[in-house]
Amino acid sequence: MPLHVIVGAGPVGTTLATTLADDGHDVRIVTRSGSGPQHQRIERVQADASDSTALRPLVKGAAALYNCANPPSYQHWARVWPPLAASLLDAAESASTVLVTMGNLYGYGPATEPITRDHPLNATDHKGTLRNAMWQDALAAHQAGRIRATEARASDFIGPGVQPEAGMSARYVKTALAGKTVYMFGDPDAEHSWSYIPDVARTLAVLGTDERAWGQAWHVPSPPPVSPRELVESASRAAGLQAPRIRRVPRNVLRLFHPFSGLLRELDGVLYQWERPFEIDATATTDTFGLTPAPWPEVIERTLEYWQSAHVRRGAGQRHQTS
Length: 323
Description:
By secondary structure, the protein is α/β, with parallel strands linked by helices. It contains 13 helices and 11 strands. The longest helix has 19 residues.
């Protein structure tokens, strides 16, 4: 079977590697630490993927190169993403392979209706502008015949591999399961899409192996939107606990902490996603490839199983990465 190269061993990269390997593909996973899942078809390689000289030979002969990496926090995006994206683009071109990028919905900016892949890219925050520039660079290379490029776009991650300390939604659930009051940014009752890690991995695997995907971006099929309040209440019910008390943190209160927290300053730029309904529409992906999302009860059950495992309680496991 052809070789598939994955950069990044967070929840998405790890699950994708296992998915491809279980399907009979040979997989090489590249990280700075040399980490990754154990599997007879998975080779783990320690390398700096932002160094094109180091990455090029690792991609030679590959059928597809998957960008599943992500800087550890918003504050590092502007510094880390440009050289990393440029290196992956260069490596894909040198190997004449497919470049599959794990993206998100930041590039669309605020929306008043379900977001389709044809929605205008009207980012209002520098993080979305940066992701749009990455996609435009890859698309231009595709249109010039230098590479074959595609991108998967997902909403907020949920599921196995997503650490309970990472991301707002995960922190909300962790707090609820501890029996504490949950303080939420934005509107607790605004419906929101959540993308399940196994659904994300299945989408990426298809995009890297089906030529119908190339030259376009595709949304990850996700369960019907669920509000943050319903998310924590669903998790609490599944764990046999009472629904938690929920309190909203107003935006003006959040801004009081901007001088002390770079993360909260960056969060302010994408808080629109939590202040009104924010829904992903993946109809095109389902119609073209037949991919459908896992049912919400399964999403909650599998997520809780992971969070409640001894492996996670000890603080081990993969570091959460968003795209």
